[in-house]
Amino acid sequence: MCEFVIMPPIPARPTELHELGRAFAQHYYTKICVGRQELDQLYAPDSVMTFEGLECSGREAVMAKLKALTFKSIHYSITSIDCQPTGLPNTVFLMVLGQLKTDEDPPHSFCQTFILRGFEASFFIVNDVFRMVLHNA
Amino acid sequence: MCEFVIMPPIPARPTELHELGRAFAQHYYTKICVGRQELDQLYAPDSVMTFEGLECSGREAVMAKLKALTFKSIHYSITSIDCQPTGLPNTVFLMVLGQLKTDEDPPHSFCQTFILRGFEASFFIVNDVFRMVLHNA
Fold it and tell me: How high is the ipTM of this complex?
């Protein structure tokens, strides 16, 4: 079972950058729900993901970590997506704040940040940091 | 009144990158507390800050926003600092998760992400995104 929701408010006058962030989030969190193996198309051989403090370098290590997640169901509710240019060609900085609920656990806040780089017609993830918003771990 | 605390656990074998992140956070959040006007040394003419969804481009706009914050006291408690290399020379990606308490308000979670770039002996902030972890704003 899977659900993905971007909460209002939607920007009244969305910019191209915010549209890109929204489209990326839609794609990424849908794939986490229903096709995690296909996320390998989003990571590159030199991508870096830090997941709850554990650093994974390279597509293979990132995918091994993502595939090892054991939940049966996940629901995402995205509260905000902040996008910025980086001053580098085709490189975008993106911070996502939201809540997620896995299986029978209560909902928890999370924060995930990406640096995306364009290549031909698509983007891949250069950097990815994920944290649940928990202060007593 | 001001307080700044980095919570344990401290990494058992801190890397150079994590030491840099920790030193940056120590400097940044101390200055937010006791010398906000000096933060202008950390922002560049082309820095971008998105503060609770409001984008400020350039040092002047960023500093105007930071100086306009109206709290009298602020206490920070930093839960985690995740640092990554970006593949670009002297450029570091940093995500900070913590709690803050202003004046008589209850503590709230926050997330702040930076891209830092080295220049001579110091770093400046290229990108900065700040969000309180609130889902019903």
Answer: 0.90
